[in-house]
Amino acid sequence: MDLCLALDIGGTKLQAGLVTSAGEIVSGSLRRVATPTTADADVLFAAVAALLATVEAQVPEEAAVAVCGVGAGGPMDRAGEHVSPLNIPAWRGFPLRRRLVELLQLPVAVDNDAKALAVAEGWRGAARGVGAYLGMVVSTGVGGGLVLDGRLLQGAAGNAGHVGHVVVEPEGRRCSCGGRGCLEAEASGTAIAAITGRPAAEAGPQDVERCGRLVGRAVASVANLLDLQLAVVAGSVALGFGPPFFEAANAEVQRRCRLDFSRCTRVVPAGLGADGPLVGAGAVGWDHLGALEPLGPQRPPGPEQYRGAADHLRCLAPRHRP
Ligand SMILES: [Zn+2]
Fold this sequence. Notes:
Layout: E1 2-9, E2 13-19, E3 31-34, H1 41-56, E4 64-72, H2 96-104, E5 108-112, H3 113-123, E6 133-138, E7 142-148, E8 151-152, H4 183-187, H5 189-196, H6 205-226, E9 230-234, H7 236-241, H8 243-256, E10 266-269, H9 276-288, H10 307-320
Parallel strand pairs: 1-4, 4-5, 6-9, 9-10
Antiparallel strand pairs: 1-2, 2-3, 6-7, 7-8
Helix pairs in contact: 3-9, 6-8
The protein binds zinc ion.
């Protein structure tokens, strides 16, 4: 059995594990450590190497690691040759892919963690069975990935799906990108803290409603533009806000998605929970080997935990009836 050595590099934690070609994390293979607070690029890489070594020691006798897949915060250049994760100051233009190839002597693929998470949700999570959707992460920042026709979109520089810079308030707050009123500048955890003066985890009902409404506004623009009917939202801010956030987002989407093809658009919580980033890194690895099946209807919705997608498909059903 071939396995993917999956690695998720975050600002607060590093996690790694073994992911099968079916998108399952091998039982007992997951390891997590806190991301070292260091300004030294090599100290951080040494921590990554140590983590990967502990996971490689878990490879079952009858199995072998065929590829390493990595999800990391952006920005990065195409294919993750050089990464500069915003929340990891030690790495600026760090040649992550090359260093991992030298370390592991394996094929290595690196992609943006929000894009990886978007694929994971179509592979194993709440977008299973859906071939066109937006995957979003609403946490400290706002990121995302787009799946159309069963494939993750890349774009000219690999940044397709970066929904954080869709404008939701035309004359709104200045954004780090240089624009104004981007979703990230209005509804990210950082923005909510700046606007309200307290962390997003302590946001009041009005702040939660506003965040959901603005996310719904961005989703509506994307859904109308790209003919997709599902947005799956992960991230500590959105999932922490819970049902009131999703109700506000869906209400806004229903107000703004009035086209025949967009009327059924839904915003649902991510289905994979804490496993999402690692399953996403696994998807990056398997996709690199050409071993990731296209996402979409050939992967029917699973059991109860995937109710989001199942509800969505029911909504579509009448249009497709002969
Ligand atoms: Zn922006």
